[in-house]
Amino acid sequence: MTTQKESTTTTAVVVQQSKAAGRLLISGGTVVALILLILFFFLMRPDTFLSFVNVRNILYQISILAIIAGAQTIVMVLGDFDLSVGATSSLAGAVTSVLLLQENGLGVALLAGLAVGLIVGLVNGILIAYLKMSAFVATLATMTSVIGLGYLVTGGTTVFGMPAEFNQLGQGRFLNIPLPVYFAVAISVLIWAGLRFTTVGRRWYAIGGNVEVARLSGVNVRFARLLAFTLAGIISAIGGILLAARLGSAAAEQGGDNTLFSVAAVFLGMTVIRSGAANLVGTMIGVAIIGVMSNGLNILGVNAYVQQVVTGLIIIAAVTLSSLKTRET
Amino acid sequence: MRKQFKVAGALAAAAILALTGCSSSGAAGGNGGGDDDGTFKVIAFTSGNQTPVGAWWVKAVTEKAEELGWDLTMIQGDFDFQKMNPAVESAIGQGADVILDGYTDVSSIASIVTAAKDAEIPIFAMDAGTEETDAFVTNITTDQQAIVDKTVEGIGDAIGGLEGKTVMVIGHDPHAGIRYRSRLAIEAFEAAGATIAGGEIQQVTSPASGRTEALNFVADYLSANPGGLDAVWAGWDDAALGAAQALAEDESTAVVTGVDALAETIAAIEAGGNMLATIEQPWPTVLDMLVEDVEKYRETGELPSKRFVAVDVTLVTKENAADITPSDKLG
After folding, report:
1. Do residue A254 and residue B200 have CB atoms under 8 angstroms apart?
2. First vs last Cα of chain A: how many Å apart?
3. What per-residue confidence (pLDDT) applies to B245?
4. Which residues on chain A are in Cβ contact (under 8 Å) with B245?
5. Which residues of A touch B221 (CB under 8 A)?
C-alpha cells in the first residue's frame, strides 16, 4: 500500500517536472533556441564563430533587417502586418540615391527618402484604418505599386555612384563597429521605449489585445492604426536608405527579402513573452536567430537552399510555440 | 428552359465558329513572305523586360520592326510565365509569320513552343538556352565556354596562376546561362589546380538580393578563413559587385570577375579595386544577326542553317574598359 502511494507520488512529481520543463520550453523556447544555435556554431567553429570580427560581421548583416523588423513589430503589435516594408525600403533608397545623383544635397535627398516612407505608410494607414481594407490586401497592393515605382525611379537598372558622404552612412565605422549597427540599436531602443512607456504604445497594445475593448475604452483606433503604419513606413525608409548606403547602390527590389524575414523575426519574438504579443525585445531575438543561423550555416558551408528550408522550419516551429503559448494563457 | 439551352447552344456554336475562323485565317503556316495582304506579322516576347538588357531588347526590336515594316506584337512577361505564356499563345492563335524570343529560356516556354509548332510558326531566339534544341529554328547566344575561359584566364594571370589557390564561385541555378557557366567555371578552376571555396557553387537564392547574398557569402567565408580567398568568380555582375565590396571591407587583395559589363562594374574596374574584370556580351550584334535571319526567311522562306549559334565575347579589364558600352546603357 505504502509502496503504491510512493510510486504515485513519484509519478506525479515526474509529470509535474516534465510539465514545468514543457512550459519552460514554450515560454523560453526562442531564447533557448538562440543560445543553442550560438553554442552549436561555437562548438563547430570555436576559433571563429565568437571572434570579434565574426560577431561584428553578424551585427552588420542583421542591422538593416533589425530596423525593418522594428517597423514590422509596430504594426504587428496592433494585430496587423505590413507586406510593403521591403518595397518601401527599396523605393526610399532608390529615391534618395537618384536625387543624390542629380546633385541634390544630402539633406534634401535623405528627407525625400523619408518622405517616401511617410507617404507609403500614410496610404497604408488610410486604406486599412479608414477604408477598412484588410492589412493583407492593402499592403500587398501598395507593395506591388511601390515595386513598380521603384522600377520607374531607377529606370529598371541599378543606380550607383552616390557621394562618399552618403555611402559612409552605411559603410563607415565608429570604434571599429559599422555605423548601421548604431542606427539599428538607436532605432530599436526608441521603438522599445515608445511601445513600453508612451500612451500611444499602450494604446497599440490595447488594440492588439482587443480592438472592441480598446474602442470602448476611448482609444481612437483608426488614428492609432494610421499612426502605426505611418511610423512603420518611415522606419522602413530609414532601413532602405541605409541599405543603399551600405551597398553603394540602389535597385527596385533590393530589400525585398526583408519583408519575409521581418515577419519571421516578429513571429519568433512573439514566443518570448507570456502574452504572445509582438514585442521589440523578442523581435530582436528573432532577428539575431536569423542572422546567427545564416552566418553560422555560411561558415559551415551549408548550401543556401538548405538554409532556406531551415529558416522556414524555424518559423513554423516558432509559430507553433506561439500558438501553444496562447492556448496556455 | 429548353429554349434557353437552344439559345446558349447557338451562341456557343457561333463563338466556336468565330474563333476557328480567327485562328485559321491568320495562321501563316511557315511559308515566309508574310500574309496574303503582304504584312509580315511578328510576335516578340521576353520575360526579362525588367532587366536593363531586356528593356533595351524591347526598345530595339520595336525600332527594327518600324524600320523593316513588320506588324509587331510585343509581349513583356515581367518574369511571370503564368501571365506571359498564355498571352503569347493567344497571339499565336491570331496568326503570325515569325515568333521572336528574347532572353527567355526554352525550359520556361514549353506551351509556347507547342502552340508555335501546331501553328507551324518558326521561333527565332536569342539567348534562350545554352544548347541546341528543336524548339527554335535558331538560338543565337553568347559562347559560355568563352566567357569561362576568358574570366578564368584573367583571374589566373592576376593572381600568378591558379595552382593551389582558393576561388569562390557564385552562381544562381534558376538562370540557365549562369547555371551552365558556373559549372564550367568549377571544372576550369579544378582542372587548373585551384580549390573551390566551400567545395561547391555558392548559390544565390534570389536575383533581387544577389548583391547582399554574395556580400554575405564572402564576408562569412573570410570571417571563418581570414585571408583565405584568392579570387571570386561570379556568374553575373551584381553578385560580383557584392563580393568585391566584401573583399574591400576585409582589405583583401583577392580579385573578382563578373559577367554583364554593367556601368557600375566597369566603373569599379576602372577604379582599380578588387573588381578585376567582367564580360561584354555583344547583344546589339546578336540582335542584328537574328533580324538578318528573320529577313532572309521573310524574303526566301529559307530557315537558318544552324539551330544554335554561340557568339564570342570580350573580357573587359582596366585596359579596355573605356571603350566598352555598358549593357545597361545600350538603350
Report:
1. no
2. 38
3. 95
4. 247-248
5. 298-299
Does A312 contact B at CB distance below 8 Å? no
Instruction: List B234's β-bridge partners, or say none.
Output: B170
pTM of the complete model? 0.80
Cβ contacts of B213 on chain A, cutoff 8 Å: 304
Q: Is the model's pLDDT at B170 over the cut of 60? A: yes
A168 interfacial to chain B (CB closer than 8 Å): no
Whole-Å CA distances, B72 to A8, A47, B40, B68, B127? 85, 63, 8, 10, 20
A243 within domain boundaries: yes
Contacts of A310 in chain B (CB under 8 A): none
Mutate to test the interface with B, among A68, A147, A157, A262 (most CBs of B within 10 A): A157
For residues A116 and A91, the answer to whether their CB atoms sit within 8 Å is yes
- Mind listing the pLDDT tens digit for each residue in A62-108? 999 999 999 999 999 999 999 999 999 999 999 999 999 999 999 99
Please tell me if residue A158 touches chain B, with a CB cutoff of 8 Å: yes
Contact partners, residue B188, CB within 8 Å, separation at least 6: B148, B149, B152
A275, part of any domain: no
CB contact under 8 A, B208 and A305: no
Contact at 8 Å (CB) between A129 and A143?
A: no
> Residue A87's closest CA among A256, A326, A265, A225?
A256
| Residue A133, domain member (yes or no) | yes
Q: Which three cell numbers stand for residue A270?
A: 512573439
What is the residue type of B133? Answer: T
Q: What is the CA radius of gyration of chain A?
A: 22
C-beta atoms of A304 and B203 within 8 A: yes
Residue A322 lies in a domain: no
Closest residue in chain B to residue A150, using alpha carbons only: B50
| A75 vs A253, more confident | A75
**What amino acid occupies position B145?**
Q
Residue B153 buriedness (CB in 10 A; 0-12 / 13-18 / 19+): middle
Q: How confident is the model at residue A156 (pLDDT cuts 50, 70, 90)?
A: confident
Q: Which of A4-8, A171-175, B87-91 is predicted least confidently?
A: A4-8
- The enclosing H or E element of B257 equals strand B255-257
| Number of domains, chain A | 1
User: What is the span of the domain harbouring residue A85?
Assistant: 60-254
The most distant pair of C-alpha atoms in chain B lies apart, rounded to whole Å, by 87
